Amino acid sequence: MTPRFGFVGCRSMNKMNKLPKLPIGIQTFEEIRNENYLYVDKTKYLIDLIDAGKTYFLSRPRRFGKSLTVSTFDALFSGKRELFHGLYAEEFFQRPDYAIHPVVKLDMSRLAVKQGIDGIFPSITRQLKRNAERHGVELSEGLPHDVFGELLVSIAKKKGAAVVLVDEYDKPILDLLDRPDESEKVRDILRDFYTQIKSEDESLRFVFMTGISKFSKMGVFSAMNNLKDISMKGEYATMLGYTEDEMSRYFKDYIEKTAVTMRKSQEEVVVQMRDYYDGFSFDGKTRLYNPFSTLNFFDDAMFKNYWFETGTPSFLAKYMKDRCLTVEQFRGIEASLNFASAPGEIEDATAASFLYQSGYLSLRPGRVLEYSLDYPNREVLVSMSSLLTANILGDRGAADASVSALRNALEKGDASGIVREFNRLLAKIPYDDYTASNKENFDIRYPGTNFGEWLYRSTLLSYLYGAELRVEAELHGHRGRADMVVECGGRVWVMELKVAKKGEDAGKLAEAALSQILEMGYAAPFENAESLGLAIDHERRRITEFRHERQGRRQGEGFARGNLVT
After folding, report:
1. What is d(CA 404, CA 413) in angstroms, rounded to the nearest whole number?
2. Which residues contact residue 294 at a Cβ distance below 8 angstroms, ignoring those fewer than 6 apart?
3. Is 498 helix (H, G, I), strand (E, B) or coil?
4. Helix axes 117-135, 144-159, angle to 10 degrees
């Protein structure tokens, strides 16, 4: 496979010819520029926004560069022109109408939400006082929203129209989703607080707000109808994250270094990086690398699930478990242009909308509607699948033990061992709950497909993805599609699944599944292929029969069959 990167020189080398430092966890623009950290120049987007309007909102997943963008706006309006030498925004300071503006910067992720209302009030007040001290104005005592309005008016009178930068506006509410009463109280406080931005519009030069979610009743969007949402605008789709071109321009030397460390060719490293960390899209067209995972990968020279593991998987696990969500059910969902803008509160959002805005799903071109949804890359797909397996089996330790046993069976060609681990998972599925949760609209999305068979297959696929195996679902061949193709330890397993309803002979279905693999030539393209026909007894919700053939020869005692119910 030919990589899409064109390797060109990195322009950020210092005098000692060393690679610039990687800004892992560094969210301050001034520190990055002064301390020789690598900086991917995104300042054109900032200038375009300043030239085009006044009040903006940008939604992006966590650790995607929102805070760095806010910090860069701060430096621009504060007149720190030396930091922009060699960047696109350098010309901004040469304009005859350029003027320094006072900046009010608020980081809502720092609010002490665990203490409820008692923590929110003093947290907001401290940030307002720091901004007041920065600009030499005095503030009265009072409720946060009143003090905020006073701050904006006082700064404007003393120094001119202010710039308001609000980072992670929704973080206090998201942190309290599992405590609805307190979440509602915090929501009311923030609604009144953010309303001041519109009320004091005459005192403002520019407003930029970031967050993960956009929900119309959360105050910002019901009270600030002048706030322009650029989250899904094509012209700003690559404002955060790394494009292919930026990877080739800024990370060429790191790709070379990583290839040497990993003893791979540069082409191999690029292809694997694309598989693991590329694929985020906010317009359905342009694909982006996750910046946090990319930087950590170059630092470690190791493929790991960096971004997913730094978030809130415990909350996500509960979210998926409470709603009985599977991993496969979100792949290929068609979505309209406004699907991410929920009409109510965040608690009322569809799972697809919530998972997209959180970064776990990404946009792709739609076939009927504007968009379709899928997991952005291997990192997110594997992590979500692993989370589902842990949910079903009860905990991470049980999931890890089962995955280890499964991989061992796959590598050794042990069909009985594979079935045993599959059954361990299937035995734990709360089938009735999953049926109630997932069958809605199923017939519309999957016409002619048996729901039970889909649920079993999608659960097993998630299990295989979570085991970090190479898996293809419904892989197209010249005569049909195999349910699952799995590669592990040099072996390729081609699997076909049948579900036996009441009164049906599971043994005959297992035989039919194997025959389908052989007759349709599903295994023909692969060397060392193992063909495995599986039959699930729907009443017992287990694989009760299987048939296994390796390279044209039946295994076991002439005819490998299982009646393995754990």
Report:
1. 14
2. 242, 247, 251, 273, 277
3. strand
4. 10
Q: Phi then psi for 559, rounded to 5 degrees?
A: -155, 95
What token pair was written down for 80? Answer: 């720190």
**Partners of 162 in beta bridges:** 204
Burial 137-157 (b: 16+ CB within 10 A, else e): bebeeeebbebbbbbbbbbbe
CB 101 within 8 A of CB 206: yes
Is-above-0.85 flag for pTM? yes
DSSP string, 290-354: -HHHHHHHHHHTS---HHHHTS-HHHHHHHHHHTT--SGGGTTEEE-TTTTSBSS-GGGS-HHHH
pLDDT of residue 37: 97
| CA–CA dist 353, 342 (Å, integer) | 8
Question: 207, 55 in Cβ contact below 8 A?
Answer: yes
Collapsed DSSP state (helix, strand, coil) of residue 546: strand
The H or E element that residue 380 is part of is helix 378-393
Residue entry with tokens 């430092």: 21
CA atoms within 13 A on the CB side of 120: 21
Enumerate residues 6+ apart whose C-beta is below 8 A from 246: 40
Asked if 373 contacts 332 with a C-beta cutoff of 8 angstroms, the reply is yes
Nearest residue to 214 (alpha-carbon basis) of 343, 32, 384: 343
pLDDT-derived band at 564, boundaries 50, 70, 90: very low
Q: What gap in Å lies between CA 526 and CA 509, rounded to an integer?
A: 24
User: Which range has the worst mean pLDDT, 112-121, 277-286, 348-357, 372-381?
Assistant: 112-121
User: What value does the mean pLDDT take over residues 306-330?
Assistant: 78
Q: Distance (Å, rounded) from C-alpha 488 to C-alpha 491?
A: 5
How far, in Å, CA of 536 to CA of 539, rounded? 9
Residue 378: which of 285, 471, 507, 493 has the closest Cα? 471
Q: Distance (Å, rounded) from C-alpha 176 to C-alpha 315?
A: 10
Quickly tell me which residue has 């956009």 as its tokens.
214
Q: d(Cα 545, Cα 535) in Å, to the nearest integer? A: 5
Residue type, 425: L
Q: Domains of the chain by range and CATH?
A: 41-236 (3.40.50), 328-374 (no CATH), 408-554 (3.40.1350)
Q: Alpha-carbon torsion 329, 330, 334, 336, what sign?
A: positive
Burial class (CB in 10 A: 0-12, 13-18, 19+), 19: middle
CB atoms inside a 10 Å sphere around CB 105: 18
| Pairwise CA distance, residues 383 & 462, whole Å | 10
CA distance linking residue 400 with residue 386, whole number of Å: 9
- Tokens 């970064």: give the residue: 359
Q: Three-class SS of residue 532?
A: strand
Q: How confident is the model at residue 14 (pLDDT cuts 50, 70, 90)?
A: very low
Q: Which of 387, 344, 380 is nearest to 359 (CA)?
A: 380
